[in-house]
Each structure stands twice: as C-alpha cells, then as structure tokens.
Predict the structure.
Amino acid sequence: MTVATSHRHRKVAEPRPPLALKQSRLPRWTLPVLALVAVGAGCGIGLVAGLDSTVQWGLIAALLFVLATYLLTTAVEGTRQAKDRLATSAVWTSFLLAVVPLASLLWETVARGTKVLDGYFLSHSMGTLPDALPGGGVYHAIIGTLEQVGLATLIAAPLGLLTAIYLVEYGRGRLAKVVTFFVDVMTGIPSIVAGLFVLSVWILILGFGPSGFAGSMALAILMMPVVVRSTEEMLKLVPNELREASLALGVPKWRTILKVVLPTSIGGITTGVMLAIARITGETAPVLLLVWGAKTINNNPFDGAQQSLPLYVFQQWQQGSDASYDRAWAAALVLIAFVMVLNLVARGIARWKAPKAGR
C-alpha cells in the first residue's frame, strides 16, 4: 500500500519540447538584394558627400554590403553563421575590388589600342618617320622583344633549372644555405639595379656597346630567381618513393633525376619558366639603359641599339602627340596579348604534362 501510494504521488516529468532540426536561414535572394541596396546607398552617399571618384562610391558600397550582411545574418542565423558570412562577403568583395581595375585597364587598352592596330602597324617599323606624324609600326619592337626575351630565357632557364636541382637533390650544408640566401635576395632585386650592374660591367668596364644581348643579360638576372624558386617547388612535389624505387633498382642518382624526377615535374617547371618569361617581357628600365632603342629594324641582337615593346611604348608616350599616343596604346595591347599567349601556353603545357589519374 505504501509503495502504491508513493508511485501515485510521484511527480510526472513534463515532456521536453522537440529540438529544432532546421535553423533559421536567410532566403537565397537576400544577398543579391543587399548588394543592390548597398550599391544604391553607396552612390547616394557619394553624391551627397560630393565625391567625384566612382572608386570611392564602390568602396562605400562594399563596406555597407559587408556590414549589412553581418548584422542581418546575426539577427536571423546567429553569431556563428554571421562570422562565416562575414568572411565570405569580405573575400568576394576583395575579389571584385581587385578585378574591377584590371578589367578597366584591359578595356581601356583595347578601346584605345585598336585605333591603329592593323596589319600595316604590325609589319612596319618607324624608319625615318617623325614621331609626331601618324603612320609607322611596331615590327622592329616585336623583333627586338622576341630576340631579347629568347636570349634571356636561354641564359636563365638552364642555370635556374640546374640550381634548383642542386638545392633539392644535392644541397646540404653551408653552400646550399648561401645559394638559397642569394636566390632570395635576387628575387626582390629592382630591375634598374640589374640594368646598372650589366651597364657597369659589360659596357663601362669591358667596353662593349649597347645591344639587345646586353639587355638580355639584365633580363636573365631578373628571370633566374623566379625559375629557381618555381622549379624547386615543383621538384619537392615529386614523391620520394619514386626516387627510392629507381635507386633500389640500381639506377644512378643523376639518371634518376633525368628519367624520373624531371619528367614527373616537367609540367610545373614549364609553367614556372613561362611565367618568368612573362614577368621580364614588360621590363623597361634595363632595356632603356642597355639597348637604347632604335627606330629601324635591327635583326642582330649582338650589335647596335635595338628596340623592344615596353621601350617603344615609353618612347611613344614621351613624344606627347596624338599619333604617338595611339601607337603607344596599340603597342601596349600587343604586349598584353603576348603575355596572355605565354600564360595560355603555360597552362596548356601544364595540363598536357599533368600526371594522368588512374582507373
């Protein structure tokens, strides 16, 4: 009887409410609407404040978008989701702020460069034509750029490749540390310093005159550390198991590097070399010091002044006439197209030489 009474008077626990399986989420259209509202608010604030630059309007709109996204997400989805949305919004906003000036630059170059860019412009030089008059072309600058960059690649690519192989495969002790230190120093060397070094040694001390080869040596100095660093990273990505398997079969180390390591990483190495070529193609300072520029065609890079595309752009812009401005924009468009082709070739080679996935 006592047990029954105790069970009867026992307090029955109230059932707990079921936990929500779904958290409140913002609709998908929220972020696009917030972006449009932020753009409108940024333009309105810019007009009211008297800001003339549309860049300032864009920065205000970006700040308002990130702030509104964070506050609205905090109110609906919670602090944790708000922090994640804040980071995502900041990344996308930074990406757009970086792409807009690049797209604007490309659009401006294409719009102005196509005025005189035609077959005649690509197949003729300036010759004896005064820079203030319309006409002329960029053929001599294209020839000079191809020869100077080609010679610089022939100098820098083998040296950079061999240096990277030494650092990865053989480099141990103090010598490897010294080489790595100098490669790091050369990575940040200004182009004008490389030009002054070649000028003092090749022209002032040894007595050689200005030539495309002198400019190529300065460009090779700038290109070499990029090749070393990119090749070094690609060689480090090759699994050590491949090296060990080759060595276990009795293959010498030099042959292992030649037949196993390099073929495995050849796609990345080629991409690094192409990117290094694209990096030096637009250099003007060493070419101005060592090549001097010429209005006529000079197919011999070892004798006499020679022209190049970046120097041609600089000299034409320096003239200050409408015709020279048009030629400068057209040459800049040719230079951009040349660099873009190099990057596309690098990507194509990297994809072609990439290891194929097994079944």
Summary: The mean pLDDT is 87. The two ends are 76 Å apart (CA to CA). The first helix runs from residue 2 to 8. The chain has 14 helices and no strands.
